[in-house]
User: What shape does this take?
Amino acid sequence: MHLQANFIRYRRGLRMPSHIDGCRRLSILVSGALREASEGHCEDSAPGSVALKSPQLVHRNQFGPDGATILSVILPDVALRRIGVGPDRLVDWRWRHDGTSSLLGLRLACALRLEAGASVEAELIAICRWFQREAAHPHTPGCESLGRDGADKASSYRDSLRAPSASRWHRVRRALETPGPPPDMDALARVEGVHPVTLARLFRQRFGCSPTRYRQRWRALSVARELLGGDDDLVAVALDHGFSDLSHMSRVFTRELGLPPGRFRGLLNRRSAEPSPMLESFKTEWSVPL
Assistant: This one.
């Protein structure tokens, strides 16, 4: 069995009226900007945004002033069942712009570009199961965080009483996501009124990883977004994102994205020529064994 993958470059400012794709599609925005609307709701996407759409979804698109490049993979029901994902358990339409979905989407994009069948299958299973959980728990707090498993349970009633509120968790996350030196977790714990060990445990329960790992994932994702659209020297990128040197950034990036930053940029930085004014888009298409 093979999956059909596409790299599609859309013309700047292009507007596409309401239409259906006629196939289930998972798309990763690689460059540019896109606004997609369906049933009165709009989503504005940026590089790293990931979308899942059902075959019959009616939607319209408006592309940004620089156009957009999208890597997408068509997901026939037979392929989903082969990897143990029930098509009826997936959302009809969902954009995600941050966190785990972006990391998983970019890992899948790299595997597709490398045409690595085993890696494609593993990454496809991971992101489809993520969207499957989203369909089952659409309002789970922290679902756009950088936790792997979407965990959101305290281990005891006492822990639930101690756990920071949703707004305070947001503050903890933003402290971890802020560029510069890592935050003082002891000070954060004092602000939230819990012991540092308790805060770390509750954070792991809620987001599926330690505060330190969360911060590393966020930094890796920030680097990935920059690499998608720029050609700055990698040493400068490392320093700009708070890494002590390139080797440190490369280790963290490779662990989270699956390959070194230079290789990642070479695969996905697709600042290709603008389509002719007579064309809406042009497409590169290939198939990947599954």
